[in-house]
Amino acid sequence: MVKICCIGGGYVGGPTMAVIAYKCPSVVVTVVDISVQRITAWNSDKLPIYEPGLDDVVKQCRGKNLFFSTEVEKHVAEADIVFVSVNTPTKTQGLGAGKAADLTYWESSARMIADVSKSSKIVVEKSTVPVKTAEAIEKILTHNSKGIDFQILSNPEFLAEGTAINDLFMPDRVLIGGRETPGGQRAIKVLKDIYAQWVPEERIICTNLWSAELSKLAANAFLAQRISSINAMSALCEATGADVSQVSHAIGKDSRIGAKFLNASVGFGGSCFQKDILNLVYICECNGLSEVANYWKQIIEVNDYQKRRFVNRIVSSMFNTISGKRIAILGFSFKKDTGDTRETPAIDVCRGLLGDQAQLNIYDPQVPEQQIHKDLSMPKYNWNYPVHSVSMCPDDLKQVRVVSSAYEATKDAHGICILTEWDEFKSLNFQKIYDNMQKPAYVFDGRNVVDVEKLRRIGFVVYSIGKPLDPWLKDMPAVM
């Protein structure tokens, strides 16, 4: 019986291991984490992360062939395959600060694996890591192996939060990279055989280690590039009177381009896109490829520009001042169907509004108040570090109220900002909301989820990204 241990019970490790256990009943899977709180949650009825479908998968396997434990060393020592799914945040200081990945947690995991292992193991990179990380981990394990054979594989994840379980059940591809040696090829086959229990063989791609590592960074960079490209077009649409949805539809019909990731918005977020592009920029710079680095860096700069542009549009539309005005923030997670707030555009938008002395009422159906306050107080690039290891900004959050419904958030507000495309925001009673707001009442739709013409008929002044401007807004100075 194959035993798998996964170090790290976060957004990648937890769902991935749950699905492996579900699809491979003969495999024993244990997820380990040093966080007692997180493991306690995995063993409870209230899982530590929100992901549609995850509850059912966990409940069917937990206690049978899926286990969650804080006994990290014990389960690593007993495992045949060790997945490492720990955080690789962007460095906040030292060489490569602001771009390079911090591999502190990865290195400590590798040293622990070497220390406690008494039998040969396959060690699988599941975290997003820089190219050549496997080589560094291999050196640590080899120099501390005590004669034990370790084979390193790269098995990057390609999950989208909100659809992770479906992505795991029916993946576009599973990528496994390993050494081109007899031992490396045997290790690839072991992992391939596990995935092959439910994934068609033609969708399992086997490469060398470096190709697998770089493919993950490249995939996220290409996806983020599409978002920034359409967001750059959204600014031009507003300036010319074009409609970004119509433009997206037209170019998406080109089979060479396709329609996915062409939805204009206030900006992209999440745990991967920005971090991976910055990592790619750093790798390019280290290899003397400054022009290539600058090309990828522009994707981040357009994303930051889009968020600033959104804030500036709000301020300029409301007579160039929002001081003391109440703004309802609908949605704080970086996308719908997840409670994840890492790099969510809402953080920068809220900080921009707070900097202009606005009063914020924030509502998100899955993000707790404590998380919102932490995100608005935490310095940039620190979101993936444990709270106790980072200092919090002294920003005064007395201007922030976290409320329990969209209707409570919008009561007596001057304006509404929609920052996450939660389905419930599409079916709100906007007449009721309008009646309870200050006038003129504004809607700033950062996700293009509302029926613009319907809201204008009610009486709202509506700004929707990349759409023809409301006549009211055309007369307002565009502070950019």
From TrEMBL:
GO terms for cellular component: nucleus. It holds the Pfam family UDPG_MGDP_dh_C. GO terms for molecular function: NAD binding; UDP-glucose 6-dehydrogenase activity. Pathway: Nucleotide-sugar biosynthesis; UDP-alpha-D-glucuronate biosynthesis; UDP-alpha-D-glucuronate from UDP-alpha-D-glucose: step 1/1. It catalyses: UDP-alpha-D-glucose + 2 NAD(+) + H2O = UDP-alpha-D-glucuronate + 2 NADH + 3 H(+). It comes from Heracleum sosnowskyi. Belongs to the UDP-glucose/GDP-mannose dehydrogenase family. Residues 328-452 form the UDP-glucose/GDP-mannose dehydrogenase C-terminal domain. GO terms for biological process: glycosaminoglycan biosynthetic process; UDP-glucuronate biosynthetic process. Keywords: NAD, Oxidoreductase. Its EC number is 1.1.1.22. NAD(+) binds at residues 8-13, 33, 38, 86-90, 127-128, 161, 272-275, 342. This is UDP-glucose 6-dehydrogenase. It comes from the Eukaryota. The active site is at C272 (nucleophile).
